[in-house]
Each structure stands twice: as C-alpha cells, then as structure tokens.
Amino acid sequence: MRNVTLVLSDGTKFHGKSFGYDAPVAGEVVFNTAMMGYPESLTDPSYAGQLLTMTFPLVGNYGVPPFTIEKNGIPTFMESDRIYASAIIVSDYTEEYSHWNGVESLASWLKREHVPGITGIDTRELTKVLREHGVMMGKILFDDEPDNIPEADYEGVNFVDLVSTKEIIHYNEGAGKKVILVDCGVKANIIRSLINRGVEVIRVPWNYDYTGMQYDGLFLANGPGDPDVCNDAVEVIRKQMNMSKKPICGICMGNQLLSKAAGATIYKLKYGHRGHNQPVRMVGTEKCYITSQNHGYAVDATTLGTDWKELFVNMNDGSNEGICHKENPWFTSQFHPEACSGPVDTDFMFDKFVETLK
C-alpha cells in the first residue's frame, strides 16, 4: 500500500494508505454515518464528484456482491451501472471478506473501476472537522508523487446532467398506469419500487419536456449536486403543474426541484445528511420515522407558496424533509423511502403515489 495524504481546503492533513486505484483525486469531502451499504453508496449517482468518508470504522468485511442485471434491466445488488463516488475514505479496510453474496474484495472492485480508496484515516476526527467547519473540498495525494496535484471542478457543475440518462428507457411496458420518471441520477431501487407496484415506468433525461406525452403520474428522482443549476427541469415541472393536476411525487433532488417549481428557495446545509439514521416527523402528527438520506442541500420551507405546506421535518435540525400541495396530489420526501441498504419505515410513500394514479 502506498502512502497517501488527504488534504482539506483549510490545510488540515490526514495520512493513510491507498488500497484502491492508485491515482490522485480531488472533490468535495462528505461523511456517511451508515454502518453498512458501501456497495449501494458507491454506486449512488448522488455521490458524483464527492470523496465519501465512512464513519463506521470497519469497511470491506463483507466484500462486494456480483454485478448482475435483472430481466427488467435493473442491477440486482447495485444502485446504478458503476461507481459514481470519486473516492472512498475509511478507517480500517478489511481485505479478507466473508459473506454468502460476496464475490470479490472492495479493493479489487475499486481498482477495476479506477476509483481511489484510502485507509488508516482517523475518520472520527475527520468527521468532527467537517461538522465544525462544514463540508470542504479535499485532495487525495500520493506522497511519492508530490507534484501530481489534481484539481476539482465542483462549484457550479451540473452533475445531474453528467449522470442522467441520455435516452428514453421503458420498464414494465404495458403493465398498466404509466409513470414518467425524471432521471436526475435515479437509484435502481426507486425504479424497482415502482415496477413492483405494477406500473409502467418511462425514464426520461432530467431536462426532457415530457408534457406532451401520455402518462398518469410524474416521479422526480434523486440526483447529485446543486439543484439551482437544474432550472430547465424546474421549468418543465412548472409547465406540467400549470397544465394538469396529475399526481407528482419526488425524492431527494425531486423534493428540491418541485419546491423550486412551487417558488421556494434552496440553501446548502453545513455538512448535509448522509446515513441511515435520520429521524423525521410527519408534520401535524406524532409519527416519527428513521430514514436513509444523502443530500447536501435543503428547501427553505418559509419560502413556500400559500398553496403548499411541509409534509416532513428533520428532528435533528428542523430542516425540511418533504412538501405537499394543499389540494392537488403533489408530494415529496427529502429522504429515501426505497433505501437499499437502509430502513424501510417510509416505503408507504410509493404506495401513496400509486394509489393517486387514476
């Protein structure tokens, strides 16, 4: 293992060893508090451009599952077609794995997909730095290549455009109700959750004008980066809302895009919500759910129009976790109801959406 140094934008340094692909990399350093699920997290397009820090110290012990594709064209155990995170940062990497579904080590997978991985980092201290300062840009540098310094393009980059499909894809054709899925970086289990409920899914690019198509409901998917660079998608959503009252459901980035279409503003969280343990309360009730989340931006609920209201709020910091229209069947969640891996407390969001299709 080669010696590496993680250098944050404020000059803080962490020293470790490389266990993945040997190449320097730069990106936004974020942390995830989940105890498991690194294959799903690494293949979540929402991590595009980011150096993913796992706060759980032991990573790699159950290896990596096979990359198999189901008959419906969806990956069985991954959330997309490849690794989207720019790197993974862990405290203690385990090369020897043991799991009924493991077919290779995390290191071999990272190397094959040309993604750096570093171990031996004090991830608790790193997380404390990020919590106090906020998320920062960082660089993973190899100590024996001091002049090989990467630069990252992050601020203002439209990562949604980089990860979204470039063509229309159909799933479960002829099944019944048709749902337009706006792909901002959709996770495979969102598609699976819809087709398992007996609907046809039409996956379209993030900025595609679907308003002239025949469909019964609109689903706005998750995605990476800053929603303020996705105004094309917002304009199409607003156009659709002005045309009809067809059901609309959004997840994560989808919550932010629908909120923007409703006139709300977005702000960047200090260090984001990433993990499987975020408590969320349904507004107007005492019901609290444990949710899986992965986002760095939030909706300013005070800027919502009078026709809208908050549906969920985060119990840790009071930030918005979903909105709904007071009359029309338009609602969202900032968290991931389909969470794989993660809690399934809020899986009913998909049932609620399918029930509104007429």
UniProtKB/TrEMBL annotation:
Pathway: Pyrimidine metabolism; UMP biosynthesis via de novo pathway; (S)-dihydroorotate from bicarbonate: step 1/3; Amino-acid biosynthesis; L-arginine biosynthesis; carbamoyl phosphate from bicarbonate: step 1/1. It is an enzyme of class 6 (ligase). The keyword Amino-acid biosynthesis applies. Its EC number is 6.3.5.5. Residues 1-177 are annotated as: CPSase. The active site is at residues 252, 336, 338. The keyword Protease does not apply. GO terms for biological process: 'de novo' pyrimidine nucleobase biosynthetic process; 'de novo' UMP biosynthetic process; glutamine metabolic process; L-arginine biosynthetic process. Small subunit of the glutamine-dependent carbamoyl phosphate synthetase (CPSase). CPSase catalyzes the formation of carbamoyl phosphate from the ammonia moiety of glutamine, carbonate, and phosphate donated by ATP, constituting the first step of 2 biosynthetic pathways, one leading to arginine and/or urea and the other to pyrimidine nucleotides. The small subunit (glutamine amidotransferase) binds and cleaves glutamine to supply the large subunit with the substrate ammonia. Composed of two chains; the small (or glutamine) chain promotes the hydrolysis of glutamine to ammonia, which is used by the large (or ammonia) chain to synthesize carbamoyl phosphate. Tetramer of heterodimers (alpha,beta)4. Belongs to the CarA family. This is Carbamoyl phosphate synthase small chain. It comes from Prevotella histicola F0411.
